[in-house]
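Schema walkthrough. Field components (list of strings):
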Amino acid sequence: MADPKVILITGTSTGIGADTARELAARGHHVIATMRNPDRDGPRVQAGFEASMDVARCDVTDQSSIDAAFALTQEKYGRLDALVNNAGYTTYGAVLEQTEEEIHRVFDTNLYGVVRMMRAAVPIMRESGGGKILNVTSIAARLIGPLFGVYCATKTGLEAVSEATRYELARHGIQVCLVAPGIVKTDNQWRSFDTSNAFNDGVSEYQETMQGMLDEVRKVASGRPGGRLNAVQMADLIEIDEQPLPLRVPVGEDTIRAFANRAAMSDDEWETMLWTTDQEGYPFGFFKNERAARAQHFG
Amino acid sequence: MADPQVVLITGASQGFGAATARELAERGHTVIATMRNPDRDAPALVEGYAGRISPQRLDVTDAGTISAAVSAALDQHGRIDALINNAGVSLFGAVEEITDAELHHILDVNVVGAMRVIGAVAPSMRARCSGKIINVSSVAGLIGGPAVGAYCASKFALEAITEALRYEMQPWSIQVVAVEPGVVNTEMLHGNLSAIASVREGRSRYQGPVEALIKGLRAAANRRQGPRSVASQLADLVEIAEPLPLRVPIGDDAIRISQQRGLMTDDEWEGFLTSLRDEGFPGSYFQAVEEQGVG
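Field assembly_structure (string):
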């Protein structure tokens, strides 16, 4: 077994974060599992791993809670070997219908939150002689789709920030690596995702199309596996003693396939495929619905 | 959770096979875990999973054991939803020194063995117009390397079989997939690595480089993860309701290599591979050739 490492993870109340915290604890590592509401969610995540897992409150949009979580880590272990920036949420809505407040809120969690966490982690890691930072991106970072463009923007932004910090932090022995899950049957993707107020109020211009798309997302996600493979892959990346880790690790057959297909196509080929395919399922329903309206303008 | 599936897996006594059997059982599926010697190996595997993992004797080189195990599984469970062809052996040694018998054995286990099990399981899947056949290949099924030519040949062949079978089985909605794990820390790389006779007897022209490669591969395995990623990925593939891709590389190294290889010409790839000089795989081979030469 690999030597026990000290790992801080955000967003561990459910889904991939909870699975990853438990996978790492099961492998004998020290996990600081952070979440917004540890009183409510902590005991369930920690069950069976009370000795090796600390549960701490950390809201990535709240600097004082971040400082407290790192203070706890420093005090208890004096080092940090890996940080997993997992906290994030999906939001659906037409780009121009998402309010400033909605856009700010999702960027605050998915992008600024990660930057805040990295800023707090780097001093401790530097003192420990290096470390690993895994930033959880998404299949959506490379497969931009309609009606969740703002979410895609948070993830493409995260990819840019991760790649830049990968180069900037190499001098300290810190490796930044992107982990890209596909569609996973987690609450975030399946049951309780966030939708724009315009849609919630029934006044979106894309009301029916979006309803159809969300139904498709739920249907696809309900037939997908849970977060376990992602948890195992991240635990492996933390344990692997081989340098350097890749910049980007797609996880799951859907993401591996989608990234390869997208990389092999020109933008024109990709767009033509989206508008002409008869494939079923998410996100093709959108393109089928919109095809006729588009044809009136662009032939 | 996905509906409970009935999964038959070969080579379940250790490594990928054992880890996958346990992962599937933990997720609530029924596993027929087949192995050559269940009397010796099944108790350790089944411990804690009684009722969910049923061990069966099956040697992929022995057709009688295959039909007996498949019949028993169908009698007991009425169906096999997924077949995981995991049983396989490795072989280290330079191509020119591999004997006919050595080559025949590895192909018999890794290729013909998988085909025999497929032949036994496919009729019941066809009858139900449903099923998944998952062949455990390797990155060695995507790229060739020195001193592992026979192993690569067996995995390249398994890839070809997988692709042909995938098209043939489509009319019955049977999905056929190859998975390619990278370097994983399992018993296969730490137990008695099977080297060809000339290497075992210390009379190979390539003795130093082959030994360096085996040592490098073991060292690489020590730096890498155990079989959990393979187990999770295989269990996911069993559960997933959507159409599966032809190939699924497993682990950061395999994903990376399959992507790189796909983007490079043969010339670029050869230049990259032969420039490697490290303690891993296959750099340790080239380094040994450079330092010691070959006989």
